[in-house]
Amino acid sequence: MSDSPVAAPTDAEIFEQKAVRLAKRERLIAERTNAAGGAYPVSVPITTTIPELRAEYAHLEAGEETGITVGVAGRIMHARNTGKLCFASLQSGDGSRVQAMVSLAEVGEESLARWKDLVDLGDHVFVSGQVISSRRGELSIMVTDWQIAAKAIQPLPNLHNELSEESRVRARYLDLIAREQARKTVKDRATMMASLRSTFTGQDFLEVETPMLQVMHGGAAARPFVTESNAFDTELYLRIAPELYLKRAVVGGIDRVFEINRNFRNEGADSTHSPEFAMVEAYQAYGDYNSIADLTQALIQNAALAVADSHVVTWADGTEFDLGGDWDRIDMYSSLSEAAGRQITPETPIEELKALAEAEGVAVAHPIHGKYVEELWEHFVKGSLVRPTFVMDFPVDTSPLVRDHRSKAGVVEKWDLYVRGFELATGYSELVDPVIQRERFVEQAKLAARGDDEAMPVDEDFLRALEHGMPPSGGMGMGVDRLMMAITGLGIRETILFPLVK
Known about the structure:
Elements: H1 11-31, H2 50-56, E1 65-81, E2 85-91, E3 97-103, H3 104-107, H4 109-118, E4 124-133, E5 139-150, H5 165-170, H6 172-178, H7 180-202, E6 206-207, E7 213-214, E8 226-229, E9 234-238, H8 243-251, E10 256-264, E11 276-285, H9 289-308, E12 312-314, E13 320-322, E14 328-331, H10 332-340, H11 350-360, H12 369-380, E15 389-395, E16 411-419, E17 422-429, H13 434-449, H14 460-466, E18 473-479, H15 480-488, H16 492-495
Parallel strand pairs: 3-5, 6-10, 14-15
Antiparallel strand pairs: 1-2, 1-4, 2-3, 4-5, 7-9, 8-9, 10-11, 11-18, 12-13, 15-16, 16-17, 17-18
Helix pairs in contact: 6-7, 7-9, 10-12, 11-12
């Protein structure tokens, strides 16, 4: 047999196949007693699922018969028709399969002819019959009755050829039908989400929901999507982060709160960024950025255990990555100074930072001290991080929602967590003083006036909430899609079930 790839059908061939299948659908309608009911039954008498069948009868020897009749349904993935016996592989949603054997002796001449005439690859069919093991040892149903539950009008892609990444993300339903890894990713993500919630619940956090449509964007440095409400006759923003509402909840007395949410940022899309993405944020009264780092490490390590049964995860390409142990915590300024070979502190003049950036070819869109430091840190240090690492203590002028460091002037108590070379999460000792928060917002407004699209506006309602007293708190935010990337090694478009594509 040749190993060369099978050519994909042309548009003309697909059009022809669709026409043939539509004609078969019309014949199904004509056969039905109540044609108004359409081509397909409302339900079929399933007695067991394919996964249950495989689990219960895995012990059968080749050629063994059980005498037990079952009714199952699945999608036809492979089919072979001979004179008096037809074979079909039925697949359930989880990818497990069972063979259906349609024989002249069991169903009769007319039913066998209808099977050969009407059934195509991709169709959903119901079969009932005895559970047996074929002479080759394959778990099978010896069919006595069958019906088409739903017909595939479009032919399936050629299963001998791997779908391209572009095809996979544009037609994820085909990816899920054809590829085990796609189904596994969906299940792994569900397992991971359940683990996140379990870890939070185990530490007495409450899950809440906050608005996606907001009259004022805030909680992160990002460009928002803008829309309008006809009912309120006002401009609205899709949320870039739930932070400011979750902090209102802490003000109200929900001391440990989290949300798993969808956020929207009107920015670029690449291997680690998507305009629409999932995020988890959490706030802990009387915590700080150290305690929230401990929580974040627990969340990630528990998720790895749930998905991979180990802190050492195996990525899609076979690489092993260790998420276990206690993770390093390094200082941003100190690590930058060491990598750059010169002392850089919060007092370093901006002219000196600018000269270094120009010498290294580092572009800085908004020339303030903190932007230079962060861009230079990414240039010099980011690429050298292998193990999960908390990068601690950021410049004050790029972190308007963070408390000043308790002992270091010019920096705030903020960390970013880097895993696999990308930023996975960020955590703060939260700024809870409304007077300082107002000053920070005003500085952000000045940056916005100078053209910084990511700067935050002055949020008077949030300031009013802080004025009622928010306890000292630690807070964190983590990309859920990126957590999947860290555990599975996949790109962001593979971790999102239906990513936005042009």
